[in-house]
Backbone:
């Protein structure tokens, strides 16, 4: 693939590495490639970061035909740049694309795009502890047309954002509201795809949870509204009497790559990890019996986020005295050590660029 590079002649001043937050800053360049029905993907290029010009009738604005991914590039302790499980993210983008009728994109081509863009903007990768360069590939439908059908033209793009810790509280346990009014996904829907519509549907619940003093919601299943699904944009785990439970991948939750990394590490350490449906009432009962030892959420942005409080039915369950559990801490340390190249990459998760 021949990627044309146009350098930004007006580079920005880089932000303070100790105050990055999440998703606030963008690098000097972006990657773009177009799709035209009958031609396929064409014109891969790196261009100065900046606004796009799109027709107001571009289909993405009206019917949300779009997909995205999120992964991170790290400055390793040996000074090299490494990506974590990038092949899995690119595979998942094509699974999402298929669900919303976006044409498949060659995974090697997407990898070349990400690699080239990061090389151009490599000075933007932060090196302060806990920081990384968040990589956001996405696809949008661009046909100027108001009828409802899959588009015939698309843009695949990649933007980069230097990030710090995801949650304001850092690794401190979060307060999560068990959502019983709104649902995120239903069987047969789009819950397993990383597509914008899922997030638009989640905003109201998040805002109402924030108003009640919680930072995120725990979603229950959309059909019976009792089975535990996931937390905001992360997957949920519960340690009960030494065993670890998480919701199975049955189409309504997102197949998190951090979820999979956590499961593989815990199994490697000898934990029994059970992917099985559990109702919120069952969890409450186990909590009452003193058997719920730890709860945590997994996702690329925060890696591991301990759940300190679960609010349900007007009552708060305070888990592990709202302290970080030993397993949550061990997972966080193990995953981040591989990401920053401090530990051996025995699962072949890292790609150097
Ligand atoms: C992205 C995402 C996750 C976490 O996936 P990772 O691959 O671990 O980042 C979980 N749930 C939802 C809804 C998500 O969008």
Residues:
């Amino acid at each position: 693939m021949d990627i044309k590079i146009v350098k930004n002649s007006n580079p920005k001043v880089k932000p303070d590495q100790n105050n990055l937050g999440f998703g606030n800053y963008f690098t000097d360049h972006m990657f773009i490639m177009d799709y035209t029905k009958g031609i396929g993907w064409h014109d891969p290029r790196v261009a100065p970061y900046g606004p796009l010009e799109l027709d107001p009738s571009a289909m993405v604005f009206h019917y949300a035909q779009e997909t995205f991914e999120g992964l991170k590039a790290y400055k390793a302790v040996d000074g090299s740049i490494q990506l974590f499980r990038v092949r899995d993210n690119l595979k998942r983008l094509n699974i999402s694309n298929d669900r919303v009728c976006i044409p498949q994109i060659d995974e090697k081509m997407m990898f070349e795009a990400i690699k080239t863009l990061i090389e151009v903007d490599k000075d933007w990768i932060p090196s302060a502890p806990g920081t990384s360069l968040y990589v956001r590939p996405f696809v949008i439908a661009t046909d100027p047309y108001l009828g409802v059908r899959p588009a015939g033209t698309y843009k695949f793009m990649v933007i980069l954002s230097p990030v710090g810790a995801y949650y304001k509280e850092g690794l401190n346990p979060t307060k999560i509201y068990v959502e019983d009014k709104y649902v995120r996904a239903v069987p047969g829907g789009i819950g397993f795809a990383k597509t914008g519509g899922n997030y638009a549907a989640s905003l109201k619940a998040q805002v109402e949870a924030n108003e009640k003093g919680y930072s995120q919601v725990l979603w229950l299943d959309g059909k019976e509204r009792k089975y535990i699904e996931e937390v905001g944009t992360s997957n949920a785990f519960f340690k009960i009497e030494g065993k670890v439970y998480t919701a199975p991948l049955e189409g309504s939750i997102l197949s998190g790559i951090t979820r999979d990394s956590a499961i593989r590490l815990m199994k490697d350490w000898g934990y029994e990890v059970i992917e099985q449906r559990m109702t919120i009432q069952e969890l409450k009962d186990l909590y009452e019996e003193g058997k719920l030892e730890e709860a945590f959420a997994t996702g690329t942005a925060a890696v591991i986020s301990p759940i300190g409080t679960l609010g349900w039915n007007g009552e708060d369950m305070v888990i592990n005295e709202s302290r970080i559990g030993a397993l949550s801490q061990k997972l966080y340390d193990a995953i981040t050590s591989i990401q920053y190249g401090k530990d051996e990459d025995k699962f072949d998760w890292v790609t150097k660029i």
